[in-house]
Design brief:
Length: 288
């Protein structure tokens, strides 16, 4: 059985679609909780929709994605916990595929699906933990084939299920016992990198993380953040820096954060609509 948690910040229609797709994807959903981080009356009203059979948990303080997911998962008792963005819809059978993957691997803490764009093309869904390259690849004028390659830590494919360092936090099915043993998501990450940190702690605690490309979930990337670059880009790099400081050696974290700071400054000086966002992101970093 699965306790499903959908973290939503507005977008009630999108959230309702996600919840309906979760209900329709497999027979094992014991409970469905929508964590409302926006104090949105339209989200609160979803509790009255009998087709969803959902509980709405209000967190108007917007504690961040991971802390909101923890709050939604805490009251449940099912042995598995699904944590999902609101901007997804689950293809038929996907939850069953992920649950089978965890049943088949008792030492696996988490399983993630193959994420798809709205046109059906695949998204990056499985990753290696960040190295020095990943610190700056997003800031360099590299061809898309390089950005989507193993050089940039991208491990997804359509081959069979396998171990990966981490899966994207937009849709994670987890073993409750494993999540509780590592202390849940860290509240230190308000947004971004919370799943990278969590999966690192799973591996450090002796658990595995599985990528299951036979399970398909459509994901609208950055549906709630793309219009807020000057706020969200600094948050992205602040979270990345926090991850390096917590999980990399001191020399590596210093070099990675220094490279990000230099490249953000360079991008802030180039023409383009994101110059102010890059400058704000640089200001949010303090090189070691």
């Amino acid at each position: 059985m699965i306790d499903a948690v959908v973290v939503a910040h507005g977008q009630a229609d999108v959230t309702a679609r996600a919840c309906r797709s979760i209900r329709a994807s497999g027979g094992g959903v014991a409970s469905l909780t929508i964590v409302d981080t926006a104090d949105d009356p339209a989200l609160d009203a979803l509790a009255n929709d009998a087709t969803l059979d959902a509980t709405v948990l209000a967190r108007a303080d917007n504690p961040g994605y991971g802390a909101a997911a923890n709050a939604g998962a805490h009251p449940g008792r099912a042995p598995m916990i699904l944590v999902a963005n609101a901007d997804v819809w689950v293809h038929p059978g996907a939850l069953d595929e992920l649950a089978r993957a965890l049943d088949d691997a008792p030492d696996a803490a988490c399983a993630g699906p193959l994420l798809l764009n709205t046109d059906g093309s695949p998204q990056d869904s499985a990753f290696a933990f960040p190295g020095l390259g990943q610190a700056v690849f997003d800031l360099l004028p590299l061809p898309s084939r390089v950005r989507g390659s193993r050089l940039n830590g991208r491990l997804w494919s359509k081959d069979g299920a396998r171990d990966v360092d981490y899966v994207l936090g937009a849709f994670m099915l987890m073993r409750r016992r494993a999540l509780e043993l590592v202390g849940g998501f860290s509240s230190a990450y308000w947004m971004y990198a919370e799943e990278v940190d969590l999966c690192r702690r799973f591996w450090d605690d002796g658990w595995r993380v599985r990528f299951v490309p036979s399970a398909h979930v459509t994901h609208i990337r950055a549906a709630t953040t793309s219009a807020q670059d000057k706020v969200m880009l600094p948050q992205l790099y602040r979270s990345r820096a926090r991850w390096y400081r917590r999980h990399a050696t001191r020399p590596m974290s210093s070099v990675a954060i220094g490279l990000m700071w230099l490249m953000l400054g360079a991008r802030a000086r180039l023409p383009g609509p994101r110059r102010e966002a890059y400058a704000a992101a640089q200001a949010a970093l303090k090189p070691d």
